[in-house]
Amino acid sequence: MSTTNRYVFIDALRGIAALGVVMHHLFHTTVFTRIYYQIMPIVIKIISDYGRNGVQIFFVISGFVIAHSLRNNKLNIKSIFGFIIRRQVRLDPPYWTVIIIMLFYQFVESHLPLVTQPLPSLSAVLLNCFYLQRIFDTTQILDVAWTLCLEIQFYLFFIILLAIGIRLVKPKNNPSVSFASVGLVLVTGVISLIIYRYSGTAKFVWFIFDWFFFAGGVLCYWALHHIVSKWLFFLFITIYIYYILFAIFIQNSGLDLSILLAGFVTVITIYVLGYFNKLSVFLKNYFLQYLGKISYSLYLIHPIVIFFVMRLGYKLTGDNHILALGWYILAFFATFIAAHFLYKFVERPSMNFSSRIKGILT
User: Fold this and answer.
1) What is the pTM of this model?
2) Helices (H), the chain
3) Which pLDDT score is estimated for 361?
4) Which of 61, 191, 198, 230 is the most exposed place for a label (fewest CB within 10 A)?
5) What is the number of other CB atoms lying within 10 angstroms of the CB of residue 52?
6) Distance between CA atoms of residues 340 and 347, nearest Å
7) Average pLDDT over residues 12-25
8) 177 has which bridge partners?
9) DSSP label at 112?
């Protein structure tokens, strides 16, 4: 399978996942939620219910993409440091921009009557900027940022496993992946599946409870590119299926079936399309590709836009059902407009800068 073509299906899937999360929050986290349950078509309700599982799709995609990004990395101190810097240059500016927007919004609100929520402290702001707010149990400025905190833990842990694997067994065909590395990813992925049922609220803090999604994406990439035997990938999938069946047939299993299925279907779909060399052509649609392009900005900015539009709408029109639908449509399109500008003026320049410094840091 070629590694030179762009995986347009992955881009489209990323956009679909982001859209699902947006629709979930539009329906379920606003002052109009009660009204939407009464007036929305059942198909919108179903899509909104399961849109939250876009998060698990993101986790699988991240494993696949990070495995691709590190495929030729020799994993010395310079290359690891360079990868981390470039990754954060890509992720941080859009995230920090949205934090600034949210802080400004909270600052304005703090000067209005009847608002009692205090502004976050400087230490809380700094912890949020460096993805540590959940670990230190401080104010979370952006609600969706918990997934970014896990993403940072994912790729740092992945690099550690690769480095340990190289220390234990010298790589043969790929400079960054040894047989020991594969074993470590597989074993930790299975352990993550085993303990996921006991995660509770800890899954919002520590990566290990969701690591199996990321590991599944990694193993999928390695199997498609013959870095590992496909049978090791199928072993992981077999264990994954066992836990899906466990969630189906065991009452009070502690497992969320829809979450497990979201990750499983994503991994299998990517593998099947990759096996038939369709990752570079399937869903090569302008809208879906554009959606994938702005997906990170869309994911970051949508809670603020939705909150502001819906809150304003409720103050102006109250429980009016027809106008509540109008506010839904307005918030939907306003989210895309805001995401477009965030991508154009912050995210895309960050991506370009990350690409320019690649040669310097590797």
Assistant:
1) 0.94
2) 8-28, 33-39, 42-51, 54-69, 77-110, 122-129, 145-168, 179-196, 211-224, 230-249, 257-275, 286-293, 295-317, 321-342, 348-356, 358-361
3) 59
4) 198
5) 18
6) 10
7) 97
8) 174
9) S
